[in-house]
UniProtKB/TrEMBL annotation:
One of its GO terms (cellular component) is membrane. PANTHER family: TRANSPORTER. Pfam families: SNF (PF00209). It is found in: Membrane. NCBIfam families: Na_transp. InterPro entries: Na/ntran_symport, SNS_sf, YocR/YhdH-like. It comes from Haladaptatus litoreus. The chain crosses the membrane at residues 12-30, 42-63, 84-115, 135-156, 168-186, 216-238, 250-273, 305-334, 346-366, 372-394, 415-438. Keywords: Membrane, Transmembrane, Transmembrane helix, Transport. This is Neurotransmitter:Na+ symporter, NSS family. SUPFAM superfamilies: SNF-like.
Amino acid sequence: MARESWASRVGFILAAVGSAVGLGNVWRFPWMTAEYGGSAFLVVYLCIVLLVGVPGLVAEFVIGRKSKRNPAGALARLAPGTKSWGYVGLFGVITGLVLLSFYSVVGGWILRYFAASFTGSYFAEPSAYFGRISFGAEAAAFQVAFLAVTALIVLGGVRGGIEKATKVMMPIIVVLLGVLAGWAVTQPGAGTGLSFYLDFDPTPIQNDPIGMLRAAAGQALFTLSLGVGTMITYASYLGEDNSLAFDGSVISVLNTGVGVLAGLVVFPLLFAFQGGLTEVTEGGESGAIFMGVAGAFREMPYGEVVAVGFFGAILFAALSSSISMLEIPVAYLVDEQDVSRRNATVGLTGLVLVTGTICAFNPGIFDFVASTLVDLMLTAGLAGFLVFTGWVLGKDALTEFDSGAGRIARALGTPWLWSVRTILPLFLLATLAVNLYAML
Ligand code: PFF
């Protein structure tokens, strides 16, 4: 059977933006920004996105478009004669499953909050509500529901499922967040939130430069879906050759734009209706943003309407990312093991049902997977993909980069290749070392 492909370039870009825009933008980004002192974190993070994220994204695109394969098949095929590169790709396939295991738990929380927003049942006691629903049998049930929707979209295939769904969801997310941000920034008291977010204050960088760099690097990779092979897989479905550098830049700009927009909703809301960040930074845990925002909804007029829009946007963002996680192992089974898309999707969903349920019942395991393990796996994975692109593909990577590229992009090809060979893997390996050291 012929391999699937995107119907259009816009479809590919929207699917990739859909993968990038997710809980990382709306849930992890405001939480990290609050924890690391606001605007300073934003600046460091933006620099890493530009200097590491965009070149890394283009490297994954190069591998994917050149090989037209899932990550494991791609690396094995492009480096014939050595088995070990295939294992680097396989590591990415496994990372996809690990990611989906914790991501679907958070997706389940969002689904639950979305449903509960119609009546506002969680407004009265935001902390107690979150405590009740976040882990245990109910969390597992909602996680299963979220996974089922994810699986249904992936079952529809590249064009009929992923491309169609992201084409509908992405514009809705932007409109909803845009309207909410426009409203939030004009609320009395929102100004303090805005200045926390946007007025540059270097003190947090001076206090803990390494910690900040580490957190910003982890966040940059997570938000751009790098180091897993999602972007390899999505680029493998490209039919014609367009400029990968251009597409990568557009995707990064749109992703960052949505992240910043989400911050423009969350921070003004918290400062205008909750008097600040106490709930978010207290303990710094993953649920804080839910409690903080939920508390704000209680205080505002028509809180239910705002809440439905807010959690609706996040739900779509989460789904357009979770489908990209499931698509990696599905593509692997379809490409390499000759399994049908249907059987691959059903089988893998069954597997994540088990691993996800483990996360839904164990806050300790969930926390470890969601922060420490994922950061380590993404950093190691991207370092592997970059070394592969720079040293194994070498000049061939440049040829692939140039194919379909305009004049400006071509001029950037050589500096791109050199950074992919040298400075970027070194930066990632240093980040990995610091992360490992922090675990001791
Ligand atoms: N980029 C997604 C987000 O910000 O929520 C998360 C993600 C999706 C990470 C897919 C990695 C991935 F392969």
